[in-house]
Amino acid sequence: MATEKKKACKECGYLTIEKECPSCGSKSFLEKHKGKVVIFNSKSSIVSEKLNIKNNGMYALKYG
User: Fold this and answer.
1) What is the number of H-type helices and E-type strands within the chain?
2) How far is C-alpha 29 from the geometric centre of its chain's CA atoms?
3) How far apart are CA 63 and CA 3, in angstroms?
4) Residue ranges per structural domain of the chain
5) What CA–CA distance (Å, rounded) separates 60 from 50?
6) Percentage of residues in the chain with pLDDT exceeding 90?
7) Dihedral (C-alpha) 31, 33, 29, 38: value to the nearest 10 degrees?
């Protein structure tokens, strides 16, 4: 079973296989990234506040 590798959005770090970032709408992506964080509730998450993440989802910690 082949799976596509997720790319990190250059603007917000969102990890996706889509051609447009579902979080910010950007179409610029990077193949290389390090670490990841999953945000389940961005409204009350201290981690999302510190990383300036506005939407739920999986984000790269180091990219760009």
Assistant:
1) 1, 5
2) 10
3) 21
4) 7-62
5) 14
6) 89
7) 120
